[in-house]
Design a protein that fits this description.
The protein has 498 residues and is mainly α. It has a domain of 229 residues. The chain has 24 helices and no strands. Helix 9 runs antiparallel to helix 13. The longest helix has 30 residues.
Amino acid sequence: MSKWAKWSSFFLLLVAIFLVREYTDLLVFNQAEQNYGFWSIVPALLTLVFCFTTKEVIPSLFLGILAGGIISQKYNIVQQYLIPAIGSPGYGQILLVYLWCLGGLIGLWTKTGGAHHFARLVGKRIVKGRRSAKFFAYLMGLLFHQGGTISTILAGSTVRPICDEKRVSHEELSYIIDSTASPVAKILPFNVWPIYVGGLVVGTIPLFPTIDSGINFFFRAIPVSFYAWIAIIMTLLLSVEKLPWYGRKMARAMKRVQETGKLNRDGASPLISKELTVLTVPEGYRPGSEDFLIPIGVLLGVAIAPKLIVGKLFISEAFFLAVLSAMVVALYKGMKLKTVIEGFVNGCKGVTVGAIILGFAVTLGKVSESLGAASYIISATSSIIVPVLLPAIFLAITLFIAFSTGTSWGTYAVVFPIAMPLAYAVNPDPFYILLCFSAITGGATGGDQCSPISDTTILSSLATGSDLMDHVLTQLPLAGIAAVIGATLYTLVAAFYL
């Protein structure tokens, strides 16, 4: 079927939804369950189906939002959904900090050669070829693991130059960067995640009388965080090319780059512009490690050091000061102000497509939330409760919700208050609750990691210069295997324990 036929069928579906909406009573909001029934997940499902079939992310997201507007009868999607979503503080922070500051920083590094110089300096002791380049990327992913978005930005922008030189396909690199972000942050949670989840579970069951008890439970769940452990191990095996199976598309990408040197497939649409993948160091400027280490040091120092001292992260300030410090270093070393500004502006322009996709993704998340998508998924699956299978069921449910909505934190917010009382009613034993707890966090992490509308997925593609859907389609089979293994382990442990 041609793309034109696919889009035509999508528009026909929208017309059908509109007719059902206007002339039947099938689309009624259930006040008791706070959702539209199956229709609650239709926008997300349509978006995902057409993302995979057409590989056109922006139109798919827009039409999913339009479908949500029809279902909710909020036909002015600009006023009802788009403006509130992109005008939210959350998206504003992502746009200004993670995209423009990220793009600006990368743009500056194309002028100073800082990231490339650092990667070559450090990598020459480790990197000898393709495998060692991927292992270097894996190590950087472990180092910059303090949260999905930060990890993908820092690790991706650091290792891409040397991995490009050693012929590591962008599909491989984006998988390594994405899979060493949130999974590692789950295993080494020296970030805001435990505090956030602790606030969600407090008071839900007797095991969580305070936020501190929820935070402690998060750390206790690390040994049984099966999805995260499996994902990290599989990523290591892929990095050293010891994974038994890579998936057809990933294997094809690996073969392509080794035979032709093409980092992306023909016809791919990388989220980062070509200008940000080519060094344009002005004549007379000598790149040095300071061009990279000082901005990165400022970023990590301002973002993470206060967390260890006062328990608070200063992400926005950290990114702003990192860009400012990169400018100051370049100016101090003799680069003209005009050249510095040119690098920053080119960097911001280079991530425009990522900003648009992320804006639509945030909007679709608001649409799904307003329709009660997560509430419907939980209520529809609550009847299939078998104690030994419940942890695996939680993993599957949260994986699907996070994949459909593109957010792990949003999934936590709607699942934990419902799932914890349900698990406690089935079996109040603390270890059983621990299995259910870690299954929820693991499933949401896996679904978010694979979703084409997730910020970490988008930023992984952007930071590594990959086509978004190529990244999704090559990552999905491997993450799916990790999820299946994780669900099996939960079932076996629960069966043995019960």
